[in-house]
Design a protein that fits this description.
Strand 2 and strand 3 form a beta hairpin. Strands 2-3-1-8 form a four-stranded antiparallel beta sheet. It has a four-stranded antiparallel beta sheet with strand order 5-6-4-7, with helices on both faces. Helix 8 packs across helix 10. The protein has ten helices and eight strands. Among the domains are: 95-158, 2-Layer Sandwich (Alpha-Beta Plaits), CATH 3.30.70; 173-255. With 280 residues, the protein is α+β, with helices and mostly antiparallel strands.
């Protein structure tokens, strides 16, 4: 299992966090730079990172005079949407979405790119050449499935619950994730206890919430929102939403106050676009 976490104080995960803290789908550059540097990343490094993320297709920009306004794009946007909805209950539809591929070693970069893109969409590896997930890959798989030099096909994999449970445990290393979830749950409980008499100041709450959400994303981006029927009876993930909700109630308001305060201080509120209830 490879956790999708970013150990740096800034990094792409911090960019996604700022969008979430502002509940925004478009954020002007000066706001992004200000808030990411407040999380501990140097300003020149922040500007370089944003430029590289645009080149990599993780962000797009539009110009408003001299200012760039950023939007999440590509796999980073997909991950942002998945984290926002990770705790929504899912029912077992009776099948997985599967991707079967045969890409030779001479095209290893293409094979790695397929695996990376599939992982961003929540797919896990059952065995070499077979990925399974719970979302339809039609919107992104054509870059590989339309080619004649490789074999990449998608299909529904129907199976009964006991078989599906075994495949899910294998594809997403659920035993390992359960161990990490317990550790994360302990951390959430400690934060909730520490803040029960009142949250830290806004900037500290902003930084603390960033760490909380980075840990949350690291757990949920290595797997899709797995239906309850496919998880073990003692699955700690069932307890996380309530405790995370409590932590968010305590430190979320001052953290969001800090983020919106930066927008106001820079007088750029007219360039921040609020997230819709559902991102397409």
């Amino acid at each position: 299992m490879q956790a999708v976490t970013d150990p740096r104080p800034g990094g792409p995960s911090a960019v996604a966090f700022v969008f979430g803290a502002l509940q925004a789908q478009a954020v002007p550059g000066p706001v992004l730079v200000r808030l990411i540097t407040d999380l501990g990343m140097a300003e020149p490094a922040t500007r370089t990172m944003l430029a590289r993320m645009v080149q990599a297709g993780q962000l797009t920009t539009t110009r408003h005079g001299r200012l760039a306004v950023y939007r999440l794009a590509g796999g980073l946007r997909d991950q942002f949407v998945r984290v926002r909805h990770a705790d929504e209950p899912q029912s077992w539809p009776g099948h997985f979405q599967s991707i079967v591929y045969d890409i030779p070693e001479t095209l290893r970069a293409d094979r790695d790119a397929l695996r990376d893109r599939a992982a961003q969409a929540g797919f896990g590896t059952v065995r070499p050449g077979l990925l399974i997930g719970l979302t339809n890959p039609t919107d992104w798989i054509s870059a590989w499935s339309s080619r004649t030099d490789v074999l990449v096909v998608s299909a529904m994999l129907h199976c009964p619950v006991p078989t599906a449970r075994r495949l899910a445990a294998l594809a997403w290393s659920l035993d390992e994730i359960a161990t990490e979830q317990r550790s994360y749950l302990d951390r959430l409980i400690e934060i909730a206890d520490r803040c029960s008499d009142g949250p830290p100041p806004p900037k500290e709450s902003f930084t603390l919430l960033n760490g909380v959400m980075r840990g949350y994303a690291g757990l949920y981006l290595v797997m899709p929102s797995i239906p309850d029927e496919l998880t073990p009876p003692d699955w700690p993930g069932r307890l996380i939403p309530a405790v995370l909700g409590r932590v968010s109630e305590l430190i979320g308001p001052p953290a969001m106050q800090y983020a919106t305060g930066a927008v106001a201080a820079l007088d750029l509120g007219h360039l921040v676009e609020t997230l819709p209830d559902q991102l397409p």
